[in-house]
Design brief:
This protein is α+β, with helices and mostly antiparallel strands. It folds into 2 domains: about 150 residues, no CATH class; about 110 residues, Glucose Permease (Domain IIA), CATH 2.70.70.10. The chain is built from 3 helices and 15 strands. The strands form 4 sheets. Strands 3, 6, 8, 9, 10, 12, 14 and 15 form an 8-stranded antiparallel β-sheet that branches. It has a 3-stranded antiparallel β-sheet with strand order 7-13-11, with no helix packed on it. It has a two-stranded antiparallel ribbon with strand order 1-2. β8 and β9 form a beta hairpin. α1 runs parallel beside α3. The N terminus is likely disordered. It binds zinc ion (ZN). Zinc ion binds next to loops. The site of zinc ion has 5 residues, from loops.
Length: about 300
């Protein structure tokens, strides 16, 4: 039995090269070796390319990381400065709030009268922000402290707003009372009869003052109020206007020639309500002006400015 010889690639590759003497020399390399060499070279090339790509990518990532780190550092610096600035501003606000508290208390002290007694306590509520006033404007707070101060400020602002709102209402009430007080003259003219007894010998009692002037001279409301009577009075006042100023104060304007307001109308201090006349029990053109407090006639002069 003939042994089969293992078939091997016996082909050869001829590599020719020229020498210095222009002689051509040839090297014969077995085909399989040539294939191995070529394969190895391919593999090396791929490997080198891979390494090159990896290095390039890694290098790009490192550059990007570095840039990002720089950006973050800058951003961090900016934020640190901003927090410092915010902290200074907040401490400044805290100081402003302290001054507002003092101002509020001062205003209440100035207005401290019967009207304000009931509400003055609200204005004395010292918000907890005053307890954190140990910070000075040049100090820098950390974020926790900053949050604490801001929380305190929020509470303080609400308390102060409520307090100022109460003060506003009290001032408006006071203003309304001042406006309602019959404090001006009802008409220009000459006072022909004062309040009280007309003569020492037990004469007639005069419950108001008489101001004489020409018929048609305007008569004005001496304070804000509501007209409660605007009609003929059979008791001697003639054409009469009565104005209610609240707090038990009513003013009367008698003997007028013409009334220009109606019953129930709200009038302002200084508003024309009628004109001087000579109606009712009157001996000449004048306005009889009377002020009653809880139904009793008082001297109008005590209300006049
Ligand atoms: Zn009179």
């Amino acid at each position: 039995m003939a042994r089969r010889k293992k078939k091997t690639d016996t082909r050869q590759r001829k590599i020719s090269m020229q020498t210095e003497n222009q002689e051509t020399r040839s090297i014969r390399i077995p085909m399989i070796a040539a294939k191995y060499i070529a394969g190895t070279l391919c593999l090396l090339t791929v490997l080198l390319m891979g390494v090159f790509c990896y290095y390039r990518q890694a290098s790009h990532m490192a550059i990007a990381d570095q840039a990002e780190l720089e950006t973050l550092r800058k951003s961090n610096d900016v934020q640190v400065n901003e927090i410092a600035q915010l902290s200074r501003v907040t401490i400044g606000l805290q100081a402003d709030m302290e001054r507002l508290n003092s101002l509020d208390a001062e205003i209440r002290h100035i207005l401290n009268n019967e009207d304000l007694k009931n509400t003055s306590r609200a204005g004395l509520i010292r918000p907890s922000v005053t307890g954190t006033s140990q910070y000075k404007p040049q100090e820098q707070l950390n974020l926790d402290e900053l949050n604490h101060v801001v929380d305190d400020l929020q509470v303080a602002v609400k308390v102060r707003e409520q307090s100022l709102e109460e003060l506003k209402q009290q001032l408006l009430d006071k203003q309304r009372k001042i406006a309602a007080k019959p404090s001006i003259w009802p008409a220009r003219g000459e006072v022909t009869s004062r309040f009280g007894w007309r003569s020492l010998g037990g004469g007639e009692y005069h419950p108001g003052i008489d101001i004489a002037n020409n018929i048609g001279t305007p008569i004005v409301a001496t304070g804000d109020g509501q007209v409660v009577y605007s009609d003929w009075d059979s008791g001697g006042y003639g054409k009469l206007v009565k104005i209610d100023h609240n707090n038990g104060i009513v003013t009367l304007y008698g003997h007028t020639s013409q009334i220009v307001v109606h019953n129930g109308e709200n009038v302002k201090k200084g508003q024309v309500i009628a004109y001087v006349g000579n109606t009712g029990y009157s001996t000449g053109p004048h306005v009889h002006y009377e002020v009653r407090v809880n139904g009793t006639a008082v001297n109008p002069a005590s209300f006049l400015n």
